[in-house]
C-alpha cells in the first residue's frame, strides 16, 4: 500500500472515491493504484499529485522500512526471563 498516498488523502480529508472523480477515473482503478495492484501512467500520476497538491515522487514512493532495534536494546527492555 502506498502509505504517503493514504496520508495525503487523510490530511486533506478526501475520500478515494472523490479523488477518483476529480482525476477522471473509476474508483476501482484508483483503489488498485493505491493498493499497488496497478501502475499509474505518468499523466495520471501528475493529475493525482496536482489534485492533492503534493510532490509526485513523494506521493508514489515506496514504503520506508524502519530499522530493527539493536540486540542490546531488545534485551534491556525485556521484562520476561530469557
Name the features.
single chain, 82 residues, mainly alpha, 434 Repressor (Amino-terminal Domain), 6 helices, globular
Shape: globular
Count of discrete alpha- or pi-helical segments spanning 4 or more residues? 6
Query: In whole angstroms, how far apart are the ends?
Result: 36 Å
Q: What would you call the structural class?
A: mainly alpha
Mean pLDDT: 83
Topology as a string of helices (H) and strands (E) = HHHHHH
The CATH C-level class name = Mainly Alpha
Q: Would you give the CATH topology? A: 434 Repressor (Amino-terminal Domain)
Multimeric state of these chains? single chain
Let me know the CATH homologous superfamily. lambda repressor-like DNA-binding domains
What percentage of the residues does DSSP assign to strands (E)? under 5%
Q: Unreliable runs, pLDDT <50, ≥5 residues?
A: none
Radius of gyration: 18 Å
Biggest sheet architecture: none
Number of strands: 0
Helix content: 55-70%
CATH architecture: Orthogonal Bundle
Count of folded domains: 1
Q: How would you describe this structure to a colleague?
A:
By secondary structure, the chain is an all-alpha fold. The protein has a single domain, classed as Orthogonal Bundle (434 Repressor (Amino-terminal Domain)). 56% of the residues lie in helices and 0% in strands. The protein has six helices and no strands. It is globular, with a radius of gyration of 18 Å. The two termini are 36 Å apart. The model has no long low-confidence stretch (mean pLDDT 83).
Describe the structure in brief:
Helices cover about 55% and strands about 0% of the residues. The chain is mostly helical and about 80 residues long. The two termini are about 35 Å apart.
Amino acid at each position: 500500500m502506498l502509505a504517503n498516498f493514504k496520508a495525503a488523502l487523510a490530511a486533506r480529508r478526501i475520500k478515494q472515491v472523490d479523488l477518483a472523480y476529480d482525476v477522471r477515473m473509476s474508483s476501482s482503478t484508483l483503489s488498485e493504484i493505491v493498493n499497488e495492484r496497478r501502475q499509474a501512467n505518468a499523466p495520471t500520476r501528475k493529475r493525482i499529485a496536482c489534485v492533492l497538491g503534493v510532490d509526485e515522487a513523494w506521493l508514489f514512493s515506496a514504503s520506508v522500512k524502519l530499522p530493527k532495534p539493536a540486540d542490546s536494546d531488545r534485551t534491556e527492555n525485556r521484562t520476561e526471563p530469557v
